[in-house]
Amino acid sequence: MIRTTMNEKTRRRNDLILLLGCLLAALVCCGLWFLLRREGAFVIVEQNGRETARYALHEDRTVRIEGAGGYNTLVIQGGEAWLSEADCPNLLCVQTGRIRYGGQSIVCLPHRLAVRIGGGASALDAVTGG
Amino acid sequence: MKTKKMTTLGLSAALALILSYVESLLPPLMAVPGVKVGLPNIVILFLLFRYGWKEAAAVSGVRLALAAALFTGPSAFFYGLAGATLSLFGSALLKQTERFSPLGVSVAGGVLHNLGQLALAALVLESGFVFAYLPVLLLFGTLAGAVVGILTAILVRRADVR
Fold first, then answer.
1. Residue A77 belongs to what domain range?
2. Domain CATH number, residue B128
């Protein structure tokens, strides 16, 4: 039943190379992200996949976003945006923390809400065509 | 198809379905939507090693369809399908080379799974902003693949199912 293989060792080595290769690729991507990220210019609010509001990232404000499932409180302050409060069951959106770079987003799946950072001369957008 | 094999595949589909339900009950590992271990893939990978890619693909498809109908919903079905297709394709190829153990095959599968989902998200949202997730998804795809791979290797070694 058990196929004993002569090259068990070689396989384990190949596994390890593959594993480290993937981790390295992840690391390189992380590095690229840190190098290419640019601070965004505005905050885009999307509900049910459609843009419902857009605010400048550098104007401080607090907005209560009402949706089908409930509410989320969006805070924009000091060039950062975050969801400070919500009545969704898991509060993942609040735990996501603060975002400020082009392409970053906060998602609240229960309320079908996405808040993302857009604009700025983001080099990442140039790379990804976003 | 032998009755024994048919029964085994049916049970596998049920097991994979239960595992995806169990996983949906677990608290998310991170505040990034979609980051999970992928417990059902233990079953799929096991089938890939015990039978072949056709059996693995069939059970994977049944599992995705049933999970979508019961609890994950239609969008999860399409994202799951995109990930599973690319993942199984890559895993089957890698297994074919006979140069990797379940661990290596699974790591490649985990990474490809995330890449497939991300590619679909980029297409659907017509935006590259999802690729801001690429680093974190690569990292977690690798780790999730390693966990699934280690568990599958134990199963392949011990479970005498054919």
1. 42-128
2. 1.10.1760.20
Q: DSSP class of residue A49?
A: T
Same domain? A59 vs A14: no
Write out residues 135-154 of B within 8 Å (CB-CB) of A: 135-136, 138-139, 141-142, 145-146
Q: Are A107 and A125 in contact (CB under 8 A)?
A: no
- Global pTM value: 0.78
Q: Contact A22/B160, CB-based, under 8 Å?
A: no
Other beta carbons within 10 Å of A82: 18
Query: Residue B85: which domain range?
Result: 3-158
Contacts of B73 (CB under 8 A, 6+ apart): none
Are B135 and A95 in contact (CB < 8 Å)?
A: no
ipTM above 0.90, yes or no: no
Q: In a 3-state reduction of DSSP, which class is residue B160?
A: coil
On whether the CB atoms of residues A22 and B142 are closer than 8 A, the answer is yes
State how many domains chain A has.
2
Beta strands across the sheet bearing A113-118: A50-56, A42-47, A113-118, A105-108
Crossing angle of helices B74-96 and B53-67, rounded to 10°: 170
**Which residues are registered as beta bridge partners of A64?**
A73
User: Does residue A26 carry a pLDDT above 50?
Assistant: yes
